[in-house]
Amino acid sequence: MRPIDLARTHRLSTQAVRNYEDAGLLPPAARTASGYRRYSERHALALAAFVALVPGHGHPAARAIMVAVNADRFDDALDLIDRSHASLVSARAIVDAVETTLRDITVQSWDGAPVPIGPLAHQLGLQPATLRRWERDGLLQPCRDHQGHRVYVAGDVRDAHLIGQLRRAGHSIADIRLLLDELRDTRDPAQVTRALADRRQALNARSRAMLSAAAALNRYLDAWPRQNELGKSSSTAT
């Protein structure tokens, strides 16, 4: 098939298809005597696999997975896929931990008086230096009083509780920052609940996309099996 035939299937430009081949996302195309690319069903399956991988794994990971597959580095491809699944598990665990923590702290009003750093650290069983480090990491954004001292309003207190719980559970600063960015301007408990529900729905959509991607990639691999995929070595081949 011609590049345009392959491109139309996924509403891509012919240049995009050529770029994907040049980047290793598709296997090398055959060439006519005039030098024009000719694609086969193998390329159609490879392109379908890449397009399916993007929603679940993200564009960079999808590119890396296809490059590894087409270079017969199947172990590397599986490792990349497993890492994406692990990141999804971590994201779900963070949402679970936040919901658990919020059940504990939302019994108190979020509209209380600002809290200085010392009392807040004592409340959390931490040193003030830890709160200052979280501020440097971009996790907390306390206000300053007229003397320049840090004070934490109700939303900051909530965030500090969340951070402490998530850190104790072993979640990374980067993962926590991502979630807090989504909740930063959400002070009403009902709004937080809706935001977490939206987050969980997005994770479910990503999980479904990973299932679709696995099916598409498996069709590509089944059509052109490689020795590494089959788990065989040259010494055991018959």
TrEMBL record:
Transmembrane portions of the chain: none
Residues forming coiled coils: none
Protein name: MerR family transcriptional regulator
Keyword list, A-Z: DNA-binding, Repressor, Transcription, Transcription regulation
Ranges of residues in domain HTH merR-type: 1-43, 117-182
Originating species: Pseudonocardia alaniniphila
Superkingdom of origin organism: Bacteria
Alphabetized InterPro entries for the sequence: DNA-bd_dom_put_sf (IPR009061), MerR-type_HTH_dom (IPR000551), MerR_fam (IPR047057)
